Amino acid sequence: MTKQKIVAVLGAGNMGTAIAQVLAENGHVVQLWNWEGDIEPLEQIKKYHENKKYLPKVKLSSTIVPCFKIAEAVQDAEVIFFVVPSGVMEHTISFAARNIKNNTVLVNVSKGIDHEACTLISQLMIKHVRNELKKNVVCISGPAVAKQICDHIFTAMSAAGKSHSAVKKVKEILENKYLRLVESSDLIGVELGGSFKNVYAVAMGICDGLKYGLNTKAALIVSALKEMADLIQALGGERQTAYHLSGLGDLIGTALCQESRNRMFGEYLGKGLSVKVALKKVGQTVEGVSAVNCLKMLATRHKLKLPFAEVVYNCVHSAEPAKELLRKYLATARFDA
Asked: Which of 53, 169, 171, 197 is catalytic?
């Protein structure tokens, strides 16, 4: 086991709490922060050692220290994990950057993309941190359900960054017998896979709402992977990354997981509910909704034809029922990878 370190986790949702628990179990002191407008999970952790709001029935380590100010959370931290929704990442990184004093490694676990400019989260982080920290940005992405991580069910994810030493440091503090990180140099591919798999997970949920079986979903996964590979390649990443943990692995993990918010949202659409009602029933951020807007914008920018993603976009934005949109796609899709 590595020497005890002080680590910050920004974001006390289910995944942020799970990451904090792994780090604490690995022997580190974890300073956990959440958005000031939602301090309930921090109060619960402080009082009960449990995040009843986002990760109930998981007894949390006593070395997880709730911090109600971001400056307090990042103080003396050697590694900072950013586990907030992608829509608030720029605010979080810009605020946190003012208080980072050490040669800290910055880890993006948000699996999203900046929805305003349609840029990668890593690019957003690099924009706001001082020059000597730009090389220290790492992205973690892959098939990871928070509760399963806390239950010590084996999980493997990709860890990508420009600096081998930065990725190595993240591996040293986070890996254990049930969690493994596989190093990648393709930061673009890993981030895009982690973000846009949410779009195709919505489509898999629509299949569930329509009671389509695995035969249909398996065929659609082929279409999804081809489009993800096309996009990664167009943006300068490695096409093969789409078929690794942050692409194929994460897509399967999200698309077939009953607890997945994106899959659940799609299921409600498949059952005929409106987007507004479906979002309300899910009750948490559905990254696939904003991600599909970015996906369409990037496809237009790079002159890519992504017909399966277009189906999801129309399910979210057009008045035509999801059932009809998916039926038309299945009638014309080629399913060649």
From this structure: 197
